[in-house]
């Protein structure tokens, strides 16, 4: 059964249209990879799903319509967005950043428990709760961005280029943690990622986006075996 459903999605900025009728679906508890060249509309797709850009068409999460809702309302329905560039509040401490992720929640005890839960996934953050976020390394800032999203207790986690600017070892560790979150908490994940090898290694299904349209969809195995994808994104011929 499809959990996240997108049908005929059109979105853009002002008069500039970026997405031209995107259709896709993601089952609950799956990891879905979105691949495509720069300028294909991948970031705009995630922004449309989280309510950050105006969109037309159908976006449903568990049967609830998201289209036209503002970002805070979408977040209250369980959609957490980790944007490209992380979106960390640099002057605030690590703990303050994490607590901001729980802004739609009111149960104090659960929030305290989730602070501990996030630090279990990201041990380096535990020793830096009082540290200003701007002083963290790039990898630690990405951990903080993911941890802040987890504080929402999301049903869907949207990740935009989580490996951007990170060393390969740090990137592999982040993707390992994303897999653990998906498996242990059954959180649905939609990840936009230039490193197609990594994305297809953790995803169950994938979609290739070009010039604002989905041009190929299928299981990660099928997408990996496609000759065009292999040449364009994976660096080899099938």
UniProtKB/TrEMBL annotation:
Residues 4-236 form the ABC transporter domain. It comes from Nonomuraea coxensis DSM 45129. Keywords: Amino-acid transport, ATP-binding, Nucleotide-binding, Transport. Belongs to the ABC transporter superfamily. One of its GO terms (molecular function) is ATP binding. It comes from the Bacteria. Pfam families: ABC_tran (PF00005). InterPro entries: AAA+_ATPase (IPR003593), ABC_transporter-like_ATP-bd (IPR003439), ABC_transporter-like_CS (IPR017871), BCAA_Transport_ATP-bd_LivF (IPR052156), P-loop_NTPase (IPR027417). This is High-affinity branched-chain amino acid transport ATP-binding protein LivF.
């Amino acid at each position: 059964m499809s959990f996240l459903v997108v049908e005929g999605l059109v979105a853009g900025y002002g008069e500039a249209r970026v997405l031209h009728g995107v259709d896709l679906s993601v089952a609950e508890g799956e990891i879905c990879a979105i691949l495509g060249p720069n300028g294909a509309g991948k970031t705009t797709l995630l922004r449309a799903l989280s309510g950050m850009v105006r969109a037309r068409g159908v976006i449903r999460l568990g049967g609830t319509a998201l289209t036209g809702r503002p970002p805070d309302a979408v977040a209250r329905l369980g959609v957490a967005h980790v944007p490209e560039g992380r979106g960390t509040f640099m002057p605030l401490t690590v703990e303050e950043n994490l607590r901001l992720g729980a802004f739609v929640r009111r149960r104090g005890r659960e929030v305290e428990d989730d602070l501990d839960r996030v630090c279990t996934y990201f041990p380096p953050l535990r020793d830096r709760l009082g540290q200003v976020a701007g002083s963290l390394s790039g990898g630690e800032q990405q951990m903080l961005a993911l941890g802040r999203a987890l504080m929402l207790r999301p049903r869907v986690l949207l990740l935009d280029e989580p490996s951007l600017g990170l060393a390969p070892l740090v990137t592999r560790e982040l993707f390992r943690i994303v897999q653990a979150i998906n498996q242990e908490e059954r959180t649905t994940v939609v990840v936009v990622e230039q490193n197609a090898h990594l994305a297809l290694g953790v995803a169950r299904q994938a979609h290739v986006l070009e010039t604002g349209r989905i041009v190929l969809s299928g299981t990660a195995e099928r997408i990996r075996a496609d000759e065009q994808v292999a040449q364009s994104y994976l660096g080899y011929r099938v």
